[in-house]
Specification:
The chain is α/β, with parallel strands linked by helices. It contains 13 helices and ten strands. It has a ten-stranded mixed β-sheet, sandwiched between helices. Helix 6 packs antiparallel against helix 13 and helix 9 crosses helix 11. The chain is globular and about 55 Å long. The C terminus is likely disordered.
Length: about 400
Amino acid sequence: MRGSAFVPHDLSAPLRGADSGPLAGLTAGVKDMYDIAGERTGGGNPSWLAAQAPAQTTAVGVRRLLDAGADIIGKTVCDEFFFSLTGGNVHYGTPVNARAPGRLPGGSSSGSAAAVGAGACDIALGSDTGGSVRVPAALNGIYGMRPTHGRVSLEGAMAMAPSFDTAGWFAATPGLLRKVGHVLLDRERESTPLRRTLLARDAFALADDGVAAALRAFLARAQASLPLCEETIVAPAGFDSWRAAFRTIQGWEIWRVYGAWIERHKPNLGPGIAERMAHAASLRESDVAAARAVAADARAHIRALLPPGTVLVLPTAPSIAPPLASSAAALEMFRARTMALTCIAGLGGLPQVSLPAGLAEGCPVGLSLVGGVGTDEMLLDLAVALARHCGATDAPGAP
């Protein structure tokens, strides 16, 4: 299992954390986009890896884990340049989804999620631009956190689309997820207590019947921890324009980051990644200007929907994990359907936690909680409370 989740150019030996701290005694994996001093950072592509010199310093997020006592045991596989939600990597192989055998783990933080799901490490660091922590958390049946945009330092991490890039992390239990949050998050928190829960009716309508049924059953068990849910429509005109705007901005920005290098080195890019990079290269300034106008309106609308003390409930992904042998067309459909849901927090710059909430067809499904700016701690506390009232168990060391 370790071989499937960790990169071939892995650490020669674990990095030992501080002797004491809130994460002492825990093991962590790190997505291969964060610098570790003395190691090369690969970003999912062997050509990029070969062109890199060993990092001079360790990324801030990794350093914080070490300082808090966690041992870094390895660097995890990710989708190439983080430009997918499926978790496959043609160069390094697809990390095994231990909780949905024969199915994809979700990406782009696939190795980090798979490692936690398989018990290879206690916690893992990933990143989330368009759903790259939230989606694999749901598909692997674990907890995942995308923080408020800018609340966790990305210094020393490879970029994708800076308008949306966040760090992110995984844990098998909500207590551990919360402990990591206390280590990584800055102090710009919003402390208003939870007063109102909104159920995103239009988001639930996008989910497969089995997924929606499992999530509604979980919510019925969760009534002791949540204010009575009020149904709402998140996107009155539908999600298509939001999703399209997100993808245009994402494509424009990733080409600004990697386009010149790709044109110069012509790396071998895997299926799906090559096509998306080609589309990114074709975008014009007029395309992104129009997309940014849509994104600005969406951001204002989404933030107005979530004042302090309010949480939005929605499916993390609309379906269970796709089979490993899915066609390219099926995977693109999965990506498009999923981004209709993940673009909400992305456009809003908002925190979102995904928690395992049941099974559909024997596979894990995830429920997501989205809060306003700076409500990360509220969401982490709520994940713990929901687990306690819904019969979930926690691991040693988690409160």
